[in-house]
Specification:
Elements lengths: L3 H27 L10 H7 L14 H12 L3 E4 L2 E4 L1 H11 L1
Antiparallel strand pairs: 1-2
Helix pairs in contact: 1-3, 2-3
Length: 99
Amino acid sequence: MTTIIEQLAWQGVTLLSEAVLSLLFQENEKVAPGEFAGIGAAEIGTRTCVWRKPAVVNMNDAIVTGLLNRLYVEGKVEHVASKWRLTEAELKYRRCRLE
């Protein structure tokens, strides 16, 4: 049986993941076709307002990096040259949702 804590955690992760995916999609739409559209975890954290003043040294991007790793395992993002971007399948899915 799922507890209320697990349900709230799932909702939070889902909403934060959607914010990251939406930002990466928005970033992709800014560049010309064929150009690389990727951004780093620190920029994602800042632009989604996930990042806050660090409480622990060297952990500024821990939440965003965890979300990105989860999305990577799900096949929604890829990591190229220290940047993150949507996979082609995720781009296609998000473009179809707009039509």
